[in-house]
Amino acid sequence: MTERNGALNLTSGSTWGNIWHMSWPMLLVMFFNFLVGLTDIYVAGFLGSGIQAIVGFVSQLYFFIIIVANAISIGTVAMVSRSVGAGNFEDALSTARQSLIFGIACALALAGVCIFFKEQVISLAGFPENIRQIAVDFFVIFSFALAPNYIVLISNAIFRAGGEVKLTLVAMFFISLINIALNFLLVFGLFSFHGFGYRGIALATATAMSAGTIICLVLFRRSRWKDIFSDSWRVSVDLVKRIVVLSWPAALVQISWNAGNIFLYNILSRLQEESITAMAALTNGLRIEAVIYLPVFALNMAASVLTGHNLGAGVPERAERIGWKISLSGVAFVSLMALPVFIWAGTISAPVAKDQHVLAETIRYLRITMLSEPFMAISAILAGCLMGAGDTKGAMLVIVGTLWIIRLPLAYLLATVAGYGAVGVWLAMVISMFFQGIAMTVRFRNGRWKHMMP
After folding, report:
1. What percent of the chain has pLDDT over 70?
2. How confident is the model at residue 454 (pLDDT cuts 50, 70, 90)?
3. What is the average per-residue pLDDT within 241-250?
4. Degrees (nearest 5) of the Cα angle 254, 376, 316?
5. Which of 16, 149, 159, 375 has the fewest CB atoms within 10 Å, counting from its CB?
6. What is the mean pLDDT of the chain?
7. d(CA 209, CA 143)
């Protein structure tokens, strides 16, 4: 890999070297995010099951709210990486600037809506009256942290798109460190400081994201992105439109996937006396699977940037080779992770599944769904390639199509009509992921993405 404009050139040299350069920092970033979420739940556990439930619910709400930022980030990576790969750094700067402007505007608008309708939103969870106000407090604090969170997410997308993934690693390391430390300090206090109790969890996130905004601004100033502040911050309608066109399919994917999970819970709730056990098993299984998803999403982000750079440089065949290499390496790595989970499912599940019936169902869930992990890996990584190429609609059609045409109808039919219960849902998840992996491979193989202009 050679240097270009102060950053590594991802369009020449060893393809494996390019993949490694982009992947290992993102794996650490995903691990830091995982630790923060785990710490939130761990600290909340000391404050009671009600607080733990509120943290889980509000975290899910918050994830829905930042879907817009994640979608903007995907559009930003597709456009900025293509410009950097083509050597048009001025275009990359303009796109990055417009992404930040658009993201901040969206965050402020959403924060206003969330604060104004806080009572109505929280009432959807059906919390008892005695803890509903706690949930409202959490939600309001998280809403004030929305703009800093958007800035951090989009800034990190810009760093990744430029091939400077270590800047993302630096930012997220300090943000995660601050968040974890403040979780304990602001909840429990220290010496004469008595802490804020349950509010400390939300305040820790808000403070860490505010500090993260400052960290990202410093990294901009000290990197080749320093000129992002030198030009006028006027809105470019054309650039914003292009970002929106690339972003909305990514947002629809995330919304559909979360809605699909809610639908699965609804199907499981229809299983009468088996329902609670099945829903608890799904919750536990998804939590355990999250560890396997970490390297997959890291490779997804790396694939997106590498594809954009090489298409921008006019070497689509190299972009395709990298796509196959990174996806197949992901399949191999995930298969190695899934095998011990399949074999020792009981030992792995025991710490999170205390009830024996829940434990047995969690074990069954894991042993069935581990069969689909290689297909999940190739689907997610090739989706990253397509999105980096600007084919966000293609990736969306595959994911949303298999979810709503195969997974959810099949889960309902197998679980309730055919009478297989929870096993029917687990089988539907595996079957749909098989078709999703095949369909994503076909979409990547046909090569239309090579000729798309984000």
Report:
1. 95
2. low
3. 92
4. 85
5. 16
6. 88
7. 12
The average pLDDT across 11-34 equals: 88
Residues 272, 186 within the same domain: no
**Residue 36 Cα distances to 31, 48, 58, angstroms:** 9, 19, 15
Identify whether the C-beta of residue 392 lies closer than 8 Å to the C-beta of residue 386: yes
- Of 235, 259, 285, the residue at which a domain comes to its end is 235
- Please say if the pLDDT value at position 128 is more than 80: no
pLDDT digits (tens, 9 = 90+) for 269-284: 888 878 888 888 887 8
Whether the CB-CB separation of 418 and 424 falls below 8 Å is answered with yes
Cα radius of gyration rounded to whole Å, the chain: 22
Q: What percent of the chain has pLDDT over 90?
A: 57
**End of a domain among 209, 235, 261?**
235
Residue 224 in any domain: the answer is yes
The CA distance from 33 to 26, in Å, is 11
Average pLDDT over residues 176-198: 90
pTM of the model: 0.88
**Contact, 365 vs 287, CB < 8 A?**
no
Which 3-state string (H, E, C) describes the chain?
CCEECCEECCCCCCHHHHHHHHHHHHHHHHHHHHHHHHHHHHHHHHCCHHHHHHHHHHHHHHHHHCHHHHHHHHHHHHHHHHHHHCCCHHHHHHHHHHHHHHHHHHHHHHHHHHHHCHHHHHHCCCCCHHHHHHHHHHHHHHHHCHHHHHHHHHHHHHHHHCCCHHHHHHHHHHHHHHHHHHHHHHHHCECCECCCCCHHHHHHHHHHHHHHHHHHHHHHHCCCCHHHHCCCCCCCHHHHHHHHHHHHHHHHHHHHHHHHHHHHHHHHCCCHHHHHHHHHHHHHHHHHHHHHHHHHHHHHHHHHHHHHHHHHCCCHHHHHHHHHHHHHHHHHHHHHHHHHHHHCHHHHHCCCCCCHHHHHHHHHHHHHHHHHHHHHHHHHHHHHHHHHCCCHHHHHHHHHHHHHHHHHHHHHHHHHHCCCCHHHHHHHHHHHHHHHHHHHHHHHHCCHHHHCCC
- Number of domains into which the chain is organized: 2
Q: What are phi and psi of 190, to 5 degrees?
A: -160, 130
Q: Structural domain of residue 182, as residue ranges? A: 1-235
Examine the pLDDT at 236 and tell me if it is beyond 60.
yes
pLDDT of residue 18: 87
- Find the mean pLDDT for residues 167-175: 95
Please check whether residues 227 and 265 belong to one and the same domain: no
